[in-house]
Amino acid sequence: MDFRALFQPKTLAVIGVSLQNDQHPANVVFNKNHLRYPVKVFPVNPKGGSLQGEVVFKKIADIPQKVDLAVIAARAEHVPEILSECIKCGTGGAAVISGGFAEIGRNDLQESLVSMAKKADFPFIGPNCLGIYAPSIVDSFFLPSERMVRPEQGNVAVVSQSGGILVDQMLKFKEEGIGLSLGVSIGNKAMIREIDLLKYLEKDPATRVIAFYVEGFARGEGRDFVLAAARCPKPVIVIKSGKSPGGSKAVSSHTASLAGDYEVFSQVLAQMGVVEAKDELELISFCESLSCYQTPIEGKIGIITGSGGHGAMAVDVCSAHGLLVPGLATPEQERIREDLSRSIKTIASLGNPIDLTGSAVDEDFVSTARHLSTIPEIDCVLMLLLPYLPGITSDLGARLSSIYQKEGKALIAYVPHVEKFRMLIEGFELNGVPVSHSIEAAVLMAEALRRCQPC
Amino acid sequence: MLKKQIKETLEASKHNGWVLEPDAKALLHSYEIGVPRFTWAVNMDEALQFVREHGFPVVAKVVSPQILHKSDVGGVVPGIDNDEKLHDTFQRFSKMEAFAGMLVEEMDAGRELMIGAKVDEQFGPIILFGMGGTAVEIYNDTVLRMAPLQKQDIPFMIKNLKAHRLLEGYRGSKPVNKEALTKVLLAFSDLVMDIHEFIESIDLNPVLCSPEQCVVVDARIMLNRK
Question: Which one of A3, B8, B110, B177 has the fewest CB atoms closer than 10 angstroms to its CB?
Fold first, then answer.
């Protein structure tokens, strides 16, 4: 099945626009695409008339051009007929954002869409979803533009069973400087399901990391999904909700009681090399880290900081995650010391974690990071920066990033995320180095590189 | 390929919901999974004949389609070392509900492990491996893998157990026979792939692993009702 019409449409029909109510979801979708996106948009309502000076077509067949994507926001009972018209006039695909299907027990209505679409090999997203957010191409979310927080265009795709979770993750992507290649809310996933999008995204050149929010799989579907994910050369991250066992089923065997739904889910994902994020912090950290680096590490962490406390905290978190912080041999420490500025030469502690002290300047961080980036004892450098130290300037992010560019060893930074340190943060982010807002998240970023073995 | 005889056993047990232990053991044996030598004695003479051939001590277990949890009703007697005890046990078992005989079995020794299977709604056949015994739910030291298992999975499965050092030789004890353990796990995985359409879950618990061998001491195969 060809999904290009869905995710890279040149023409868009918005079916179900209201002629009276400009707050109607279909009108919101029409307005934002009409005003902000390059896609050519056609409003459709059986009554005809005009909207924002544009002709409202009575049916999709009246549109004088081939329509790539139809966004359907009409009442559920009208959707089967609309979908059938879309198929008849050669529309490329649809996003059915209307609710009122299987989620309220109308499986019959949903089934009629699926059987029709399958017969015609017609791809549709939903129903009961927000649909598609393809940066700079199209946006079927019925959320007014000014209310949305849009992340930069980037290389992480997010597929979510919940529209709300997707919008929230987009907000967090923006906060953390993670770029999005495609966001898809699949709702009831009547036809297009996780595995279909996994296969599409695997081939999508704009996507390097594929993240899923999953509530559950249908019978046997989990098996097919993990087998496909295991074959996928791009990192696949999954976050699952509904982890606690639902109800106390009487279980007559030890295995059935020990192998609960979530335990199986979690361990099978790990077996197949799929990175499971246990919570939102892990999800965001894993996405950011894997969007920058895809070379797996063993987990030998070198920690550089200007504060002994930060170093000690990071060591604790590393050890809780099974990451090693190997001590450095004395000759190695001496080589590092030689390049340090005079004011800290005798007071810096270089055993790993490396505490350059509050008197360190940019050059000290740079030279130490360069050392750690060239020795085999370390396969990932954590740089915990305190931008309020007087010797640190806003240039340090870009300067440290260039060490990664040259040496190729993963570098992960921690910088408190407040506006006044923005330039330092962007110095990392814009040069392909992930920056976390907490020590814990920085360690999770390293953890992602260790967990994602096939990438 | 599922053998005809196995299919017949499973079909015949369906109305009961699970496979009687002697049948389950015969099924395991046909996959070359080690079980202790045993006899399914329906009278005292058959029980005596087994101990004449193989000697004491033995363990006796009640066979009844109505008794799934044998220990809970006093249906398992280990360490029987004379004719009189064997006789008394038989007499007591024979009064139990739906008595269908007594399993008389050699006693083995080794680390108590557990091997299990479950047909998961989302992921299909799943294999469980871990520390065994009657308190498995309390310790919950197990790993899960989607079947079929590959040979290279086994070392990771062992290493993922909290108690893995007990299997590798701990404080003077010898390590369990990894080769035998690997063979049992892989054969079990084959069995599960062959019969997953019939089953809901399987418990092999305990599986006794020593430096010499691994044998399945108790086996419970729960069938699906479909």
Answer: B8
- Enumerate the H helices of B55-197 as residue ranges: 83-94, 136-139, 153-159, 164-167, 178-195
Instruction: Check if the beta carbon of residue A161 is closer than 8 Å to that of residue A220.
Output: no
pLDDT above 90: percentage of residues in chain A:
93
Domain edges within chain A: 1-128, 149-246+253-292, 295-451
Q: What does the alpha-carbon distance between residue A364 and residue A349 come to, in Å, rounded to a whole number?
A: 13
CATH of the domain at B91: 3.30.1490.20
Separation of alpha carbons B182 and A95, rounded Å: 50
Please give the CATH number for the structural domain made up of A295-451. Answer: 3.40.50.261
Place of tokens 């060239």: A374
pLDDT per residue as tens digits for the range A416-427: 998 999 999 999
Cα A121 to Cα A93, A115, B1, distances in angstroms: 10, 10, 36
Q: 3-state class of A26 per DSSP? A: helix
Do A1-128 and A149-246+253-292 have matching folds?
Answer: yes
Interface of B with A in 71-110 (CB under 8 A): none
B69-B74-B75-B78 Cα dihedral, nearest 10 degrees: 120
Cβ contacts (< 8 Å) between A267 and chain B: which residues? 143-145
Pairwise CA distance, residues B208 & B214, whole Å: 5
The beta-carbon neighbor of B203 closest among A220, A255, A272 is: A255
> With an 8 Å Cβ cutoff, are A259 and B118 in contact?
yes
Pairwise CA distance, residues A216 & A198, whole Å: 16
Write the ipTM: 0.90
> What backbone torsions phi and psi does residue A446 show, to the nearest 5 degrees?
-70, -40
- Which residue in this structure is represented by tokens 């369990």? B176
From chain B, pick out residues whose CB is under 8 angstroms from the CB of A217. Answer: 122-123
Report the gap between the CA of B213 and the closest CA in chain A (Å): 23
Which amino acid is residue A126, in one-letter code? G
Residue of B19, B123, B196 to mutate when probing chain A, most A C-beta within 10 A: B123
pTM for the predicted model, two decimal places: 0.93
pLDDT digits (tens, 9 = 90+) for A401-410: 999 999 999 9
Q: Residue B53: which domain range? A: 38-106
Q: Which amino acid is at B16?
A: N
Residues A170 and A139 sit within 8 Å (Cβ to Cβ): no
- The rounded Cα A351 to chain-centroid distance in angstroms is 36
**pLDDT tens digit at each of 226 positions of chain B:** 578 888 999 999 988 899 999 999 999 999 999 999 999 999 999 999 999 999 999 999 999 999 998 988 999 999 999 999 999 999 999 999 999 999 999 999 999 999 999 999 999 999 999 999 988 889 999 999 999 999 999 999 999 999 999 999 888 889 999 999 999 999 999 999 999 999 999 999 999 999 999 999 999 999 997 7
CATH dotted code for A149-246+253-292: 3.40.50.261
Instruction: Write down the CATH number for the domain with range A1-128.
Output: 3.40.50.720
Closest-CA residue of chain A to B203: A255
Decide the pairing of beta strands B38-41 and B102-106: antiparallel
Contacts of A226 in chain B (CB under 8 A): 123, 146
User: Do you know the residue count of chain A?
Assistant: 455
pLDDT at A249: 56
Name the residue with tokens 């080794």.
B110
